[in-house]
Amino acid sequence: MYDRTVEEIKEKLQTVDEEAFTVLERALKSDTRKGVQKALEATRRRLGAEAAESQRWQSLYEYERRLAEKSNAALWVGLDEAGRGPLAGPLAVGAVILPPKPLIEGLNDSKQLSPQKREDLAQQIKGKAMAWSVQLIDASEIDRLGLGSALRKAFLEALEAIKTQGFEPDLVLLDGNAMHLDARERNVIKGDALCASIAAASILAKVTRDEVMMDYAKLYPEYGFDRHKGYASADHREAIRRFGLSPIHRNSFCHQVFQESLFD
Q1: CA-CA distances (angstroms) from residue 16 to 26, 46, 215?
Q2: Does 68 have pLDDT greater than 80?
Q3: Is residue 32 very low, low, confident or very high in pLDDT (cuts 50, 70, 90)?
Q4: CA 192 to each of CA 35, 52, 108, 168: distance values in angstroms, whole numbers, following the listed order
Q5: What is the pLDDT of residue 1?
Q6: CA dihedral sign of residues 122, 125, 127, 133
């Protein structure tokens, strides 16, 4: 390797996997050039981070398998929501049954992912899942039912949609606190960061809701829904002060944020 320049070695190290690095590290160990040694160290860090990330997302599958074993469950579904707290737009609930294989690399809580990574994973989930569904509850129904009842409705509709696809799970994994929706229910605090199927459901719910809000941004451009997705950002609150409420605003939520006189 001594006949290669430092830049050539750096370029080579940027793409090697663990097995190839073991060979290169041995060959370059005695290379005294500082640039080479720095490149080796950078590669060690990269491979270490990649190994840690691989272990993280694989542990999501293992965690829910252990939960299933404790419940003697052969088939389980994960559910999660997006849009619980915005001032505008729908509530979304995703439900996903993942197969034992192939595993989906990089699954994580949707809030920890970039928009592009969420969209890429959403396509993989839809292509690889045994069954999936996303149910939406619009703003007017949230106002009519209240958030708690709207959540229950969306979760139950998501479960029913899974059933209509021919699956009857033995275990229902829900992110967060108990909702007492179903006798099969098992609640997992921070489940979107612990269980693969809940993480997948959170991604589908988030991506679907964001797509809806992007469409609403075209209908109501003055509110900036493409930027804040209906959440109570400073510019969203200012737009409400200027233009009032749109048809997709949650009146009940907005009246909690602003003084009643604002809307009289």
Answers
A1: 14, 10, 42
A2: yes
A3: confident
A4: 41, 18, 7, 22
A5: 55
A6: negative
Axis-axis angle for helices 6-13, 34-70 (nearest 10): 0
Adjacent-strand bridge partners of 82: 92
Residue 92 contacts residue 80 (beta carbons within 8 Å):
no
Rounded Cα distance, 88 and 223, in Å: 10
Residue partners of 41: CB distance under 8 A and separation at least 6: none
Alpha helices by DSSP H, listed for 71-96, are none
CA distance 264 to 262: 6
Give the pLDDT band (50/70/90) at residue 261.
very low
- pLDDT at residue 185 greater than cutoff 70: yes
3-state SS class at 202: helix
Confidence of residue 168 (pLDDT cuts 50, 70, 90): very high
Which domains occur in the chain, in start order? Answer: 6-66 (no CATH), 72-208 (3.30.420.10)
